[in-house]
Amino acid sequence: MKDNIIDRIKERLRAKLPGEKARQPMAPLRIPEHKPLPGTKKAGVLILVFPRKGELSTILIKRTEYPGPHSGQISFPGGKTERGDGSQINTALREAYEETGIVPEKITVLGVLTPLYISVSNLEVLPVVGFSEKQPEFMIDPREVEYLVYLPLKDLSQPDLIIEKKLSVNGFSIKAPGYALNNEFIWGATAMILAEFAEVISEAAGTTR
Hints:
Number of strands: 11
Helix content: 10-25%
Radius of gyration: 16 Å
Strand content: 25-35%
Largest sheet: 8 strands, mixed
CATH topology: Nucleoside Triphosphate Pyrophosphohydrolase
Distance between the termini: 21 Å
Shape: globular
Order of helices and strands: HHEEEEHEEEEEEEH
Low-confidence stretches: none
Mean pLDDT: 90
Number of domains: 1
CATH architecture: Alpha-Beta Complex
CATH superfamily: Nucleoside Triphosphate Pyrophosphohydrolase
């Protein structure tokens, strides 16, 4: 069954993606997505699917506090593309290794989701979906990662986990939709990526959301 759903996810990723339609409900303030500006930098993040406690899961990271727009947030492993990467897919794999110890050679890339432009950091992020036959032996970099957040994929189909919360961002109070998972609030770009991934999983599994 596991191999079957992985094959179906891979096949679904090759077709037209849900994109902005799936992500928009999770956008802060429900504002339309912006298009990349001149000078926009590329980035890649990894959505790693792997078996854990008998069910398919993924991980996110709690970023450490630092002077930057994504300080302390829950996100996927990933970061900016560097000159030697060659592609955003390679960026996602490299950054995931540096931040969490996931070995790139043990990952099968299933495909990618729709690139997402993040205006606050002027980045165009490519979410890369990968699969590992076994749960990796994670080793976090404490300079960048405070801890890991394990997320069973089945949790993404639970609508009661989607809530709206008031947040203070750069001195401003905003309302943002997000996922209340594992005592964490996942919002912003990460929640938007999760929403599209949840739609892909749902369609691959033949269920409706």
